[in-house]
Design a protein that fits this description.
The N terminus and C terminus are likely disordered. By secondary structure, the chain is mostly beta strands. It is rod-shaped and about 180 Å long. It has a 7-stranded mixed sheet, with no helix packed on it.
Length: 461
């Protein structure tokens, strides 16, 4: 008679010792069809009665009987999941369990009733049914805000084992799933949850797992989500004020820290007014386009303090104000002082160069004085207009330049005056000759020595 030596392909075989006899352990998964093999020699004995039971086989019969045959006919089955699908006429009385469950695990005994005293054949098998990992859920977005994301999901196959919960993971798009992952466990009956405390205008990846007694499923589909904008959390940086004149002040700044911008910067709001610690004065508001990092406030009052604040603007709104700064416009005396001459000196490798800038309220002159060991001193004048006054940090050079400048002005005045004078003299002489001579004409001739002379001629009679 043959023993219990195998099962179908979806089960595993393990030999163990049970009560001094060898026993086969068959492994399967929840939902599988598993077969516990038991055979005898029907050609020798003919059809015999067989029973299958849970646990060890007693001295007679089967405890916790699950199925019994009388010859080739099944006379009892404890469940519709228990079948004898082998050829009973050939002695194949293997037990087949359909839709295996975790509770099916345990020891099974096969008893073949052979006529005679103590001739029955007994065979023991161990069945180990393991849970199947569940299928992952299908995840979708419910709602997105600046600092939270709401997701929902539908459950997949549970692996024929009750789902014990879900595991949700969320990370920044720039991170890996190994590092910097936020995880949370969700109850098995829930189908929606929210992820909070996120950063505005940031991109995240989200995935989910199903849990049962077997463990975690494979990860679900990955969602890539960008949170919405929020008003900036930080003010502009490095805000500075500079008085340019008696009627203007310049403000400069840098954008807020990137982590505090909470969206794309669309511009800035500048607010300024005359400063008064005791009363509120009218505030002027200027909206500046994105990319600007400076602005000049004009048409201000002379020698007046102004209070200035700056806000960052994005699609979600206005950010916090920068620290209030106070700056005073200049007086006319201060402005006149600022327009005095400034000089800088640059030293080069082969010769020295002095650059003198002369600035007045209406003109600006640049004089480049070059001292070269081979070419001597050279003065180049880069005037933007005729200056009304001149000032320099070099007295000798200033005197020289002043003399040359005065000579140039004198020539420019005398030449037109001489031309006008000559024209007047010529007109007087011409009129005099007409009244003196009744007949004849006169000519003005140019001599080779460049002096003018006059000649008369009488007309022919």
């Amino acid at each position: 008679m043959e023993g219990c030596l195998g099962s179908q392909e979806e089960t595993g075989l393990v030999w163990i010792r049970l009560g001094g006899a060898s026993t086969v352990t068959i492994r399967g998964y929840v939902g599988d069809v598993v077969t516990l093999t038991c055979k005898y020699d029907a050609q020798y004995y003919g059809p015999l009665s067989v029973c299958w039971g849970r646990g060890h086989i007693p001295n007679s019969g089967c405890d916790n009987e699950v199925i019994r045959t009388e010859g080739v006919k099944v006379t009892h089955s404890a469940s519709v999941r228990y079948h004898l699908q082998g050829d009973l006429r050939a002695g194949d009385v293997s037990l087949t369990i359909i839709q295996a469950q975790m509770k099916d695990s345990g020891i099974y005994g096969c008893r073949v009733d052979i006529p005679g005293w103590f001739n029955d054949q007994k065979h023991h098998l161990a069945l180990d049914i393991q849970p199947v990992p569940p299928d992952p859920p299908t995840v979708a977005i419910r709602e997105i805000s600046a600092r939270s994301i709401s997701v929902w999901w539908s459950a997949g196959f549970d692996g024929n084992t009750p789902i014990t919960g879900y595991h949700l993971e969320c990370k920044s798009q720039t991170d890996s799933w190994v590092d910097a992952v936020r995880g949370s466990n969700v109850l098995p009956w829930e189908r929606e949850t929210a992820i909070n405390d996120l950063r505005p205008f940031s991109t995240y990846n989200i995935r989910m797992f199903t849990k049962n007694n077997m463990g975690l499923s494979k990860p679900s589909n990955v969602l890539t989500i960008t949170t919405k904008d929020a008003a900036p959390d930080g003010p502009p940086q490095d805000v500075k004020l500079q008085a340019l004149s008696s009627h203007s002040i310049k403000i400069t700044w840098r954008a807020p820290e990137l982590s505090l911008q909470n969206g794309l910067i669309r511009g800035y709001q500048l607010r300024y007014s005359e400063y008064s610690p005791h009363e509120r004065l009218p505030v002027r508001v200027v909206h500046l386009m994105d990319g600007a990092e400076s602005f000049t406030m004009n048409n201000l009052q002379e020698a007046t303090e102004y209070s200035v604040t700056l806000h960052t603007i994005n699609n979600a709104g206005l950010g916090p104000s920068s620290q209030e700064l106070v700056c005073s416009t200049l007086t006319n005396d201060d402005q006149q002082h600022m327009t005095t001459t400034q000089a800088t000196t640059e030293v080069q490798t082969e010769h020295s160069t002095s650059t003198i800038a002369t600035t007045t309220s209406s003109t600006e002159t640049w004089l480049l004085v070059t001292d070269s060991p081979t070419q001597g001193q050279r003065v180049d004048d880069f005037s933007t207009a005729s200056p009304l006054s001149n000032s320099t940090t070099d007295p000798v050079l200033s005197k020289k330049l002043g003399t040359e400048e005065q000579s140039g002005h004198l020539v420019a005045i005398l030449v037109p005056a001489l031309v006008v004078g000559l024209l007047v003299v010529m007109a007087i002489i011409w009129q005099f000759r007409r009244t003196t001579f009744k007949k004849g004409n006169w000519n003005i001739l140019w001599k080779n020595n460049d002096f003018l002379s006059f000649g008369d001629s009488e007309p022919a009679l």
